[in-house]
Design brief:
The complex is a heterodimer of chains A (89) and B (404). Chain A has 89 residues and is of the alpha+beta class. Chain A contains two helices and four strands. Chain A is globular, with a radius of gyration of 16 Å. Classes of the chains: A alpha+beta (89), B alpha+beta (404). Chains A and B meet through strand 2, helix 2, strand 3 and strand 4 of A and strand 1, strand 2, helix 1, strand 3 and strand 6 of B. Strand 2 of chain A pairs antiparallel with strand 3 of chain B, so a sheet runs across the interface.
Chain lengths: 89, 404
């Protein structure tokens, strides 16, 4: 029998959003990139922070922030060290 | 667009006319309230203005093709810088890299916040329940105790004027045809395998002899299978994630970090309708000889706007180049060959002190590892620009290429 490796990331798809997307007006290619650090590394989080820092934040909580950006979550690829969100637009 | 959430940082990369910076204040608030990072600008977390104090911030983008169509502070670099300065209460530095009249690149960067040098979080903490957030004292935090991240580097390739034949792959009509062909081949192979496992061989009746008749694979069951397959084919040739997966494989993106080298790598891709493509890859460190995972998980992300006139593709990764995996030069050449752009820029942003053996120059100075990595030529392209920025704790190498 096969069992997934513990390191294998896990994918969740948000079918509700992914079903009706239209990219007709997404004309501008160049992206904007924002990177915000709250500690120098994953192993040096402040004592007050949750043990897994931002990775403890549920994906639903990010939705309100992403609404302000005009993006919606299409799917999430979860792994031990990083969660990768694929977004609309 | 894509977002990457690590325990200590968040990366948000957005396309089109998104209003990325308008989410910054909420992001800082979430980091304080839900992740417990220290804040300084409010008395309690009940205050909606409460915002976690970032350790450092980077904001970057290429020059926009249609800046007047952008919204919010994104209509000009000057407005974006003002917005960042206001939100982050100053302290940032803004740069423009490259030729002003061509494909230049902008960067806003803050210095590391020396008040945020906390002790390590105990490994024994059992769950994700936030501990009460604290404010930062005016005389700063405790002394430095954290271990700094290893192999902190980011490679970004920004490509414009994609070859029309290569760009075609990222249109729904083309992708559906590829998916349909692929499924047809798979269905034929599956049927052949089923026939062979039941003792049915292909060939003329004379050639087949006693094995010419195959029970269990009659016309009726074929029709039932074909009906189910038809529905499956329709879904797999129209649904964005299914098509994204097919195109990732077809265009060669899955081979940038092949599973033969990175066995736990996983790619999540989406093909938009009528065109456009996004993909995120999560790349756990390859196991060492003892089968142990020696390092952290990294990521890559790709975004493609294939329409002629403003075709564009970006590739970004923080997977360390070299070591046991593919070199930076190999990655660049592989990615460029997927899109065959008319011109592209490469930026490598690398934390200082990463190189164990800095390259010694004849004048007695040293070249950083990032400078060594970007010396290789890219076949079929002429290098037009090479700019090196020596930041406080990072080296930035920017190169610009045009097709020969």
């Amino acid at each position: 029998t096969f069992s997934p490796s513990s390191a294998t990331p896990h994918l969740t798809i948000n079918h509700e959003v992914a079903a009706d997307l239209d990219s007709s007006n997404a004309f501008e290619g160049p992206e904007k990139l924002l990177e915000v650090w709250f500690a120098p590394s994953a192993s040096s989080l402040p004592a007050a922070a949750t043990p897994h820092g931002l990775k403890c934040v549920p994906s639903d909580t990010w939705v309100a922030m992403l609404d302000m950006v005009n993006c919606k979550i299409l799917s999430v690829l979860e792994s031990d060290d990083v969660d990768a969100y694929l977004l609309s637009e | 667009s894509s977002m990457f959430v690590f325990p200590h940082k968040l990366i948000l990369k957005t396309c089109g006319t998104t209003t990325l910076l308008l989410g910054l204040q909420r992001l800082l608030h979430i980091a304080a309230v839900h992740a417990g990072f220290p804040f300084h600008n409010a008395k309690s977390l009940d205050d909606i203005r409460a915002a976690a104090t970032p350790y450092r911030v980077f904001y970057s983008r290429k020059n926009f093709l249609f800046p007047d169509k952008q919204k919010g502070p994104h209509r000009s670099w000057k407005q974006e810088v003002k917005y960042l300065d206001d939100t982050l209460e100053g302290g940032g530095s803004a740069y423009m890299v490259g030729k002003m009249n061509r494909d230049h690149w902008y960067l806003y960067i803050t210095s590391p916040n020396q008040t945020l040098t906390p002790p390590l979080t105990p490994d024994s903490e059992p769950n994700c329940q936030p501990t009460p957030a604290t404010t930062i004292s005016s005389n700063g935090g405790s002394s430095a105790g954290g271990s700094y991240s290893q192999n902190d580097e980011t490679l970004e390739i920004l490509m414009t004027d994609l070859d029309p034949e290569n760009a075609k792959q990222f249109f729904l009509s083309h992708a559906s045809a590829v998916a349909s062909d692929k499924l047809t081949v798979e269905a034929k192979n599956a049927r052949k395998n089923a026939q062979e496992s039941l003792g049915c061989l292909s060939g003329t009746p004379d050639e087949l002899g006693v094995f010419g008749h195959c029970e269990g694979i009659d016309d009726e069951s074929d029709n039932r299978v074909d009906g189910a397959k038809g529905t499956e084919i329709e879904e797999l040739t129209t649904e964005g994630h299914a098509l994204g997966s097919v195109i990732s494989e077809h265009c060669g993106l899955n081979d940038v970090y092949p599973t033969s080298v990175y066995p736990d790598a996983k790619v999540d891709a989406y093909l938009f309708s009528p065109c456009g493509f996004s993909a995120n890859g999560v790349i756990p460190a390859p196991p060492n000889a003892e089968g142990q995972k020696p390092g952290a998980t990294h990521y890559f992300t790709v975004h493609v706007t294939p329409e002629s006139g403003f075709s564009y593709a970006s590739f970004e990764t923080n997977v360390p180049g070299g070591q046991n995996g593919r070199t930076t030069a190999e990655i660049i050449e592989h990615v460029v060959n997927i899109f065959r752009p008319g011109r592209f820029s490469v930026t490598l942003f690398e934390a200082k002190g990463q190189s164990a053996n800095p390259y010694s120059l004849s004048d007695g100075t040293f070249k950083s590892l990032s400078m060594q990595r970007l010396v290789d030529p890219v076949r079929g392209y002429r290098r037009m620009d090479r700019i090196v920025h020596d930041f406080e704790d990072y080296d930035l190498v920017f190169r610009f290429y045009e097709r020969e």
